[in-house]
């Protein structure tokens, strides 16, 4: 997925708004989750999303998404965003995000089961182990923030 | 900050897109950061963002943002999103997010110092302690993901 | 209600379009009318709307709305718009508008009764008296323009 | 000027938002003022704007604008909006608005003089007399609302 | 149909995007087709569309459309686009396009017959003869590209 | 390039507007032309664009673009559009377009030379021969429409 950054998406610094990049990340992750489970999906959480460098007007945003964890009805998707300067060809990595989607049964509107993730390459397996650790930490943080109030 | 959910912001389920809520959260947090430091700011990271319930077309989204941590040139903002059904008046909490912004010097485009956060109420102090812990965990996660590759 | 003015909302002078401010005023007034009557509402008329100063790109638009008159199924809402320069904190009053909404029965699509307005403070009562006078003048103007043709 | 009402411009009733119609009226009036004075213009005030009937998704909005009063640097424009059902050809009058624009000197950003209005037909002269009366009432209302507070 | 070019429609050269002009052409042609047949229509093909000169931000785009050929359920529409500089009044021709629409039966979603085109003026007849020749060439090109693969 | 079709891009039939597909085709072709010549480019013409099947809300639009002809400063790009039903995975071919872009010198704003196209595979050579024939016909049609008037 590629997006040309048009002037109307810029902030006052001439680079794309953080919120617009978040929107692209959400759409790319939704499509990836959709293709894995072939069911309607809704965004459940973002665990991490970094903005390392701006993407300027006239540059191309390159967005790639890969599924990293499946757990019952939820899927974690890693999304990488990069920029390409169309006049020089120079590419930079600008964002990494981990977004969790939940599959929904179209009739009951309740969470629906998702096919398991088949891991083949070694790096996929290592990535999966880290995804499990992220999920453990996320659940721990949520339990904590619920007991502690805000 | 309040946003009426118009039909053109809906997904195919008739509720507002996750990416649109992210966009509102980013803008509300940017304004709060701006008002604290009176300098240009850019989105640096999202640590957590949860989507607990959908906001439907015709409902009102209520967005409130508060600064929870200041560290040199970065500010962490907590954003709470709720929905209000305009026909019944019923309100629900739908999202909590922690977004980090960095203040930018308008001339050099480099990070610029930010005034410290003055904490008065006891719950502000407790919130601040939890923000410091979140920041510690975030930096740990990043260090780890850098050494481990992806 | 607050709106950060993004570049894509600007006219060629670098300030927000009159039509965009009108759109914000309409939405803020609609929400206020909705909350009063808890029914669907439609815009019926604008009596006055002034644009005293421009709101520039990168400034914050602050919009507040209050109900000033109720008559059977119609509600007059006063909307005030101001700007805040996010780098200096300076605020200015930019627009005042009086917008009339009509409550609609969702089944018959015909005008539906609206609860009366309870006035407590003295300035609310004085504001209400002026609203009644505005309404009288408006109906007179309309009667006149109908008989006179255009 | 004609606008096809697309689904993304609809409110929850399936008809176009009041604020979107206001936006079209503002643009049509701005172009008419622009063509009269061949200078940059800004919206100064709306005196009256009525919404008599909804324009539904899939219908065509027909917008026509005519200059009705010139006074030093300000121009009053009357805008008429109608709807056309594309399947039946039926047309309805839906809105009338009076919008005042001010011509701006591009260098000083201050109000700039505007060429006088040449009235030829009898109905133009009658329309002009009514425009002068509207302007007198508007200035009276403003003087009053300034002395009375709000 | 007239469109004021707002900054958010510009590309990085300060002129309106080709894709935005295409969108306006499509809407103007759809309305013209709709008015001829009073049925729902869908875009079937574009035969030619030229972009001779840019339309800049702050200029007015003037779009006119005329039906040039009817064949069973399809209609060919010629769309002319020009620009007007609002400060000087200078007009230029910027695009010509030939777009083909098909009328659709709202119940069966299949092509539906369209009333014939009545030609009166001599230039209409000459235009019609050229339209028939364009259609012949188009069908020939399609047949060829189907047999030749790509 | 992939685009999820959101409800706000739909026409009244629940499928994406022809003009929106044209906009995506223009952007995809512009990026491809940009990457070939590493210069600013502007849309010069569309020769053919077909819409064979609708793309519905909630489906994914898949857009691929390839350069087929280079001549001095102009590049012809073929764009293919397909749809994917996210719930079933079924894919369909929906549009083919040939769009011509011209490279622009950023200083003089005049056409600038473009690197030649290197053809390797046999099907690329066959495609190139057909592109030359399309260009010959296009120039013939234009010469004709200029001499014949319209």
From TrEMBL, chains A, B, C, D, E, F:
Residues 1-107 form the HotDog ACOT-type domain. CDD domains: BFIT_BACH. GO terms for cellular component: cytosol. InterPro entries: Cytosol_ACT (IPR040170), HOTDOG_ACOT (IPR033120), HotDog_dom_sf (IPR029069), Thioestr_dom (IPR006683). Keywords: Hydrolase. One of its GO terms (biological process) is acyl-CoA metabolic process. The keyword Oxidoreductase does not apply. GO terms for molecular function: long-chain fatty acyl-CoA hydrolase activity. The keyword Hydrolase applies. Coiled coil: none annotated. Pfam families: 4HBT. It comes from the Bacteria. Belongs to the acyl coenzyme A hydrolase family. This is Acyl-CoA thioesterase. It comes from Eiseniibacteriota bacterium. The lineage of its organism: Bacteria, Candidatus Eiseniibacteriota.
